[in-house]
Specification:
Number of helices: 6
Number of domains: 1
Distance between the termini: 37 Å
Number of strands: 8
Order of helices and strands: EHHHHEEEEEHEEH
Strand order of the largest sheet: 2-5-6-7-8
CATH architecture: Alpha-Beta Complex
Helix content: 40-55%
CATH class: Alpha Beta
Shape: globular
Strand content: 15-25%
Oligomer: single chain
């Protein structure tokens, strides 16, 4: 069984080779980028603010049934998010979830206002888990699942899409491609954007760095 975190789809969407090397290279505890540190600090502060307002916890199944806006911070709950696709176990917790009479909204905080492919894949991977594990109940409730990207500094939603059958196929295809990369070392992506290599800690190690 190959375990893949939903957050890995963000890096896989940006550069397959960097994702692969991160998965297969021993971790350097001294290497932590400044933007990752800032992101964790912001995430922890949002969790702290949320817990200061909430006096009782809520079960995920009860959360799904809400008819008025209810907010959940998964890291501040005991909810478990995972689903299996073939030989892949997809796991992960989104930054925030909303539930109301029309749907379940998966909210992911990002430092930019650009809805890059990796960001879209990540938020929809969380939606994939929720949809696959709760499809029948969502149908009974008449609720759809939505993916939202939010700027972590301003709180502004800058991208929003409903979860569709096409997105379901895309996420499943990406997971199977990631599984293949890890099991048979098959990497077909060719890096053509030099900016992807600038500052990458694998720049000297990456094979076929930039295709010319």
């Amino acid at each position: 069984m190959t375990v893949i975190r939903a957050s890995e789809l963000s890096e896989f969407g940006y550069c397959q080779k960097k994702w692969f090397l991160n998965r297969t290279t021993p971790k350097d505890s001294a290497f932590t980028s400044s933007h990752l540190l800032k992101g964790q600090q912001v995430h922890d502060e949002l969790d702290r603010q949320f817990m200061a307002k909430v006096t009782t916890s809520i079960r995920f199944q009860t959360f799904m049934e809400a008819t008025r806006r209810v907010v959940m911070r998964p890291d501040a709950s005991d909810a478990v998010f995972r689903t299996q696709v073939g030989e892949v176990l997809l796991i992960g917790k989104p930054d925030e979830l909303w539930s109301d009479s029309t749907g379940i909204y998966v909210v992911e905080d990002k430092p930019h206002f650009s809805a890059w492919e990796g960001y879209r894949l990540q938020v929809m991977a969380y939606a994939f888990i929720i949809f696959r594990e709760n499809q029948r109940k969502l149908g009974l409730l008449g609720k759809k699942v939505f993916g939202l990207l939010r700027n972590r500094d301003t709180g502004e939603i800058f991208w929003r899409r409903p979860y569709t059958k096409e997105i379901d196929r895309v996420i499943e295809g990406k997971l199977l491609a990631m599984h293949k990369c890890l099991t048979v070392r098959d990497l077909t992506e060719k890096v053509t954007n030099k900016r992807k290599c600038a500052g990458c800690r694998f720049e000297q190690k990456c094979w076929g760095n930039v295709q010319r």
